[in-house]
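Page 37, continued from 36.
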C-alpha cells in the first residue's frame, strides 16, 4: 500500500497494545455476562480474535482463563497470523470442526476493531 506521497504506508503500534486490548475485552466480557446473568464458568467455548501471542496471553490473564481455553485462537494465529477482525471467524470454524460443541454449549466470540475497540457476542451452539 502506498501513501499519497508515494511512500509505503506503515502502521506502527505501541507495545501497550496487548494490555489495552485485554482491558477492552475484559470490559466486554463482564458487561455481556452481567447483562445475561451468567458467570464466566458458564462459557464453554472462548472464541477470541488471535491478535498475537502477547495479546492472547494478556486476554487470558485479564479475564482469568486457563491456557487451554484459548488453544484454538493460538492454533489459528500460528497457522495464519493476525488477519484483522475476521480472524475470530477462523477460530470459530476451527472449534466447530475439531471440538464439535454439543447442542446447548455456550460460546463467547470476542474480536478487536479499529481504535482498540472490542466486540463480543454470546452464542449458543445447536
Amino acid at each position: 500500500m502506498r501513501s499519497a506521497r508515494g511512500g509505503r504506508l506503515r502502521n506502527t503500534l505501541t507495545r501497550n497494545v496487548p494490555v489495552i486490548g485485554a482491558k477492552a475485552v475484559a470490559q466486554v466480557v463482564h458487561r455481556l455476562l452481567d447483562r445475561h446473568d451468567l458467570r464466566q464458568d458458564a462459557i464453554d467455548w472462548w472464541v477470541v480474535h488471535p491478535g498475537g501471542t502477547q495479546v492472547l496471553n494478556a486476554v487470558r490473564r485479564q479475564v482469568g482463563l486457563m491456557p487451554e481455553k484459548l488453544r484454538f485462537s493460538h492454533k489459528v494465529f500460528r497457522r495464519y497470523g493476525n488477519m484483522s477482525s475476521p480472524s475470530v471467524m477462523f477460530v470459530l470454524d476451527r472449534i466447530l470442526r475439531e471440538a464439535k460443541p454439543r447442542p446447548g454449549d455456550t460460546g463467547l466470540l470476542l474480536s478487536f476493531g479499529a481504535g482498540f475497540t472490542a466486540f463480543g457476542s454470546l452464542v449458543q451452539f445447536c
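The mean pLDDT is 90. Flag for discussion at group meeting. Strands lie at 45-48, 106-113, 117-124.
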